[in-house]
Amino acid sequence: MVSGFNFKMLGQSLADVLDFSTMTLNASAININGHLALNGNTAIENVNVLGHALINSMAPIAPNTIIDLSTFGITNASLILNEQFQTADSITVNALDLKLNGSSIMGLPTLISGDLILGHSMAQLVNSLASTTIDNPSVLLLFSTGLIILGIVTNSNRRNQK
Fold first, then answer.
1. What is the DSSP letter of 81?
2. Taking CA 21 as the corner, what is the angle to CA 17 and CA 27, rounded to the nearest 5 degrees?
3. Predicted confidence (pLDDT) at residue 10 exceeds the cutoff of 80
4. How far apart are the first and last CA of the chain?
5. Which helix (H) or strand (E) holds 101?
6. CB-CB contact of 94 with 119 (8 Å)
7. How many CA within 13 A on the CB side of residue 127?
8. Fewer CB within 10 Å: C terminus or N terminus of the chain?
9. Is pLDDT at 158 greater than 80 in this prediction?
């Protein structure tokens, strides 16, 4: 959980670009009767962009929710809430991903580029009981060889005891 985040750009002269009060997230990978269940979720409370309230309550956020920052006067930037990536056996969850690409705020260039990720969680299920195919003729040969060696050793021990 992250509490009380505040991100400012261009010093104190501009309003807060992004702030929120509380964030929780998780990612899980569970094997249910041989089927992989991947789940991720994020909840963020009191999200504000340039002083405009986006989210007030601590309700769960739909996966990959994109906030159009151009409506707030921020160009060349994107804000993704509850960003999720899935593969065949894993899930990655980023609670908040702010991508800046030479963005400008309210017409003022910031020359800032980067990717700010807050709250990262990842889960992966690894099959620890991987099956290995055993060639039956080779097993029979190995077993027979072991019996022959055991017979020779046993016979040798009997002779030595007499």
1. E
2. 100
3. no
4. 78
5. strand 90-105
6. yes
7. 10
8. C
9. no
**Could you tell me which residues are beta bridge partners of residue 20?**
5
Please give the structure tokens belonging to residue 137: 């003729």
Query: 157 in helix, strand or coil?
Result: helix
H or E segment at 3? strand 2-7
Whether pLDDT at 18 is above 90: no
Amino acid type, 81 = L
The whole-angstrom distance between residue 150's C-alpha and the CA centroid of its chain comes to 53
Separation of alpha carbons 113 and 98, rounded Å: 10
| Contacts of 81-89 spanning 24+ positions with Cβ under 8 A | 81/42, 81/44, 81/47, 82/25, 82/40, 82/41, 82/42, 84/40, 86/38, 88/36, 89/29, 89/36, 89/124, 89/125, 89/126
| 18 burial level (CB within 10 Å; 0-12, 13-18, 19+) | buried
Residue 82 one-letter amino acid? N
